[in-house]
Amino acid sequence: MADDKDVLRDVWFGRIPTCFTLYQDEVTEREAEPFYLLLPRVSYLTLVTDKVKKHFLKVMKAEDVEEIWFEYEGTPLKWHYPIGLLFDLHASNTSLPWSITVHFKNFPERDLLHCPCNSVIEAHFMSSIKEADALKHKSQVINDMQKKDHKQLWMGLQNDKFDQFWAINRKLMEYPTEEGGFRYIPFRIYLTMSDRPFIQKLFRPISPDGHTHTLGDLLKEVYPVAIASDDEAKRYQVVIHGIEPLLETPLQWLSEHLSHPDNFLHISVIPAPSD
Amino acid sequence: MAALGVDCSEASEVEGNNFSCQKTADSWKRDIIRQLKHRDKSQKSMFQDVIRSYISLLERTNQQALITKGILGSGSRHLASSSDSLPSLISKNDDLKKITGELAYQVVELQQEIRIKDSVLEGQAVRMCEVQRSLQGVQSDYGGLAARVAEVTEGNRQLKREYDALLERHHDMDQTFRVEKVRGQELLEDLIKRKQHAAVRMNSRNERRVRAREASLQKELETAGKLNVTINVKKRRGNSVCLSLQEDLYAPVGICVAARVPARALHVLDAHELGINAVRFSYSSNLLATGGTDRSIKLWDVKGGMLHNRGTLDGSNEGITSIEFDPTGTRVLAGSYDKSALFWRLDDSVPKLTLTGHSRKVTAAKFKCSMRHVVTGSADRTVKIWDLHRAACIQTIEVLSYCSDVVCSEFFIVSGHYDRKIRFWDSRAASCTQEVPLPGKVTSLDISPDHRQLLSCSRDETLHVVDLRMNSCRICFRAEGFKCGCDNTKAIFSPDGSYLAAGSADGAVYIWNINTGNLETRLPEMHSSSINAVAWSGSGEYVVSVDKSRRAVLWSDI
């Protein structure tokens, strides 16, 4: 159990070194220097990039500034994905620090959502939690909570307060013992080479005959392509929080300990690097 | 990292197959833990310090930049403003214009306010002026009122002074009054003393007279005593020698044979000081007595067609109502308003007797046939009979009505009354024997010399003659213009009993003839007021009439 607590802490405090560079076509008064920052894996881009915005606004005229947006190597980065997910999905095997380009103009309306203020991020975060709890407990636990508990969850995430967050979140990780687990496991599998944004399906952690499902079982069920057959070379990596858990890891344990703060298991399937 | 991961997974897979379930459980967990640790090492820890120091450096440079900006701020700002582009200048100009416009608007507003305040101030100044004016007016009023107050106090002081002076004068007057009162009292005492002296003198005079008479009597007695008188031894009985009080009762009485009707006035004079009520001739001589309101009886003598005053009888305290002579002509009886009858002897002017007893005025006093008795009739509804010798009332007859006149015959007393009746009284029995009604108040009675006829004058302007023998047969005498002047008008028989005379209110004497019943003559113009009484002399020659205005007229036929 102390190991479990360590796991939770390690998951919460994960960081990615990032270098923000202003897009060269942005009109500046003087040379814009790149900005380096350690981004938390579990947070969202627009929540933690205030310093970046301030840094780059210093060198820009106010009339040239529109909504900030980020892109990595041409791909606009969706702010409503957790930062860790974005890194794992796009730049997990590249050299660090992660280089993100900052844009202030030409917002890509078709690719990104607008994020005018933090309450948008909060709404998205809370809706994700509710969706997860709907899958896990038929929304009973989240609905029994008071508004201040919901607020506490968001404030914990916003202010990077592990204890504050987990004081409430542990209730969401409980399950009636006779069940053996959640009703369904909230997960999303993200693919790089696909036109589908992600795969989300109903999946029970315990089989009807009492057998605990593993990550492998999930993948076999939902995206069997990800699992390599014995004789083939591994073509895909299944990455959660920047690590590849063994396929026999129980899904229930994974959902409890390796979920993001929004209670979802965000799983990235990326092509294995060919050395 | 990826390679490591693959290795780890492979190793763990191999291990997992060989070991028990629990170990398997632990292995994948351990693997995860290990992987996380590795990840953090490579991703976080290596960059953490670098980025932290980088960020702090960045902040420091930013601060320094700000500071330098601040120092150079003023200079840079000027440069910045001068290097501002034209549109900004224009906008600044517009702003300034707007500001000036606003200021101008404010100036206008403030000027308006100033104007308003000025007008308010003016109003206040005006009000202040008014207030000052009213204050002045009030002050002048106050001055005026103060002056009036001073005046009034001065006036009060003056009044007080006058009052004090008057008070002093009053005191002085009081003193003088007291002094005068004392003097008055002294004078009164003086007067009383003098009267007393006069009375004493009169008394002494009377005493002297009495003494003189006594002396003369004494002398006569002496002379008589000196004379040798043969005294009859035989005493005469019956006739007692008495002195002067008892006189001869029967004196020779003259009888008038024929009365002469008077035709003209011989003498007109104002006989008294006030009105004359009664007049009477003496039976035997031409002696006339008149009496009236002036309380005295005057005696007159007719000589040469003129009335000469022979004396005055005093003694009445009030007016005389009736006069009667006695048959001898030496004594006079008078009734007076002072409720008494008076009796004089003609040689004395002082009344010999005063008969008092009536409670009201005595209207008539007559001698009864015997000289001793007097009959008085009075307004107190009584007739009294008096004894002269005792000077006392011996009988009082209630006659029931105001008695205006009384006459006496031998047997009865006749009285006339205001209740329009003549009553006959039996003197001895004091009872009314007869009543004769008349149409008016009886003012006077007269009896004819032969005592056969009774004349009454009544207020209805008529005279009635009653025959005393028959007591009923009456003759009524009237005349045009004859009016009774008062309640005491006297009508008389002529001495021969053939004429009636009466005075009228119009100042004329009317004379009727009894036998014919007609008016014989009328004597006007001598009197100016109503005639109270007439008298016919015993000789029948003269008639005297007296009136209210103290005039007496002597008439005769010549």
TrEMBL record, chain A:
Gene Ontology MF: a single term: Atg8-family ligase activity
Sequence ranges assigned to domain Autophagy protein ATG5 UblB in this UniProt record: 184-269
Keyword Cytoplasm recorded: yes
Domain Autophagy protein ATG5 UblA residues, every copy: 11-104
Keywords, sorted A to Z: Acetylation, Apoptosis, Autophagy, Cytoplasm, Immunity, Isopeptide bond, Membrane, Ubl conjugation
Main location: cytoplasm
Subcellular location: Cytoplasm; Preautophagosomal structure membrane
Domain Autophagy protein ATG5 alpha-helical bundle region residue range list: 120-174
GO CC aspect terms: Atg12-Atg5-Atg16 complex; autophagosome; mitochondria-associated endoplasmic reticulum membrane contact site; phagophore; phagophore assembly site membrane
Domain of life: Eukaryota
Membrane topology listed for this record: Peripheral membrane protein
Any Gene Ontology biological process: autophagy of mitochondrion
Subunit structure as annotated in this protein's UniProt entry: Conjugated with ATG12.
Function: Involved in autophagic vesicle formation.
Family membership: Belongs to the ATG5 family.
Protein name: Autophagy protein 5
Organism: Esox lucius (Northern pike)
